[in-house]
């Protein structure tokens, strides 16, 4: 029996038998593989119990538990079901960070910080800012070896009385100073990073692959990219949330150009960071390695988008027009045609998202018809449907590959023929697992039934319609793998219809999340009926239900209006 099979077999035993005890004579590589599987499945409680069972198992269990610590549910105090529950989660959250920090000072039995691969200072900041942490936990947190990390500023109020406020920025930077010197396995750092801190930390991080600074200004000092190039041979990913300052395009391009040619694999921005002509040209120096590009553009930079023409190795592309004003084919047709030519050369492209990009449908149509391109995921959320017949027809050309589709647009002026075209194309996408159609007041029940009946592999479904009733529910309930469903539109589901829907669910619908939006106040269920339905859904498949009325039936529609 090979190691993977043995580890998988043991993993099954652990899940099936809570009192399962580990055989002491197992090879170390089997134990590591077993703990790796547990970490991949986010079985943190099981890993903790393994770590407590013996010193032999403690090392692999703790290693993989801390390698995956950034996936732990205690991070961010995610559970919020009342004060007591939230306080307990924040306590666990603080213990996680305290153990990482203390281990960097050799104050723990095991060197937890040396196991971690991801260091998210945003999460640490969120912990320090949490009200429960400030009022109940902070004094205990900053004790013993962590006492020196407490930083505070002193102020006086209007009456002259002194008070303290934690200096969270100073605390995080002081902690980062110590942890980064010991966490040599680190592959990714994120948070409110600064240039001086990065210059000090980077030489200690030979395995660093990714940076996620909140503000791109952290990259402006010339020593930052120089040190990355010298000390981090595996660096390949950059994610920026914002960038405040002057000459951002020039500074962004200088950072990219300072990297080793063809080393960047992933570049992402989450707002307009000033990327324009210089940045786009600089990215071409990574044309053979750049696989994922998520970029935000504006009215000032959209005319330069075709300068990305050398980046043809892309597999994932997201372009968001932050202003959404320009129809490219009408204002700069040459750029529009050059952009189409660039996208048609991206033969490995499998995920494409164009957000608020008014030319999205016409740009994508030639790609859908391109024989060598096989999209698996497509998102377009700003287009005029009545002008997009060719786009809707072209969708069916990706029937053998397309698995995820999200469409949102203006449905005004649609005729019956236009609706029939999009319905016929959607019916042919047999491999679809995720379908999101935010196309209000377009589909009727017969259209949705036709689409759903042909897409038996759906796992996520979000649809809007003029009106939704029990007939639609019946077909949704037949989707054996559905895990997430949002039904938006004026819904007139009956008690019998909803219970019938739940009755059809089976093992493949385990933990399904159901959201019914805009329930018709004239036909909506009573609170006690919804409560019974929620209980039935939880018992049947461990599912949850959100049931939202179109408006509060107890509030008059015109309340507050003056005669």
From TrEMBL:
Protein's UniProt name: Uncharacterized protein
Protein's organism: Periconia digitata
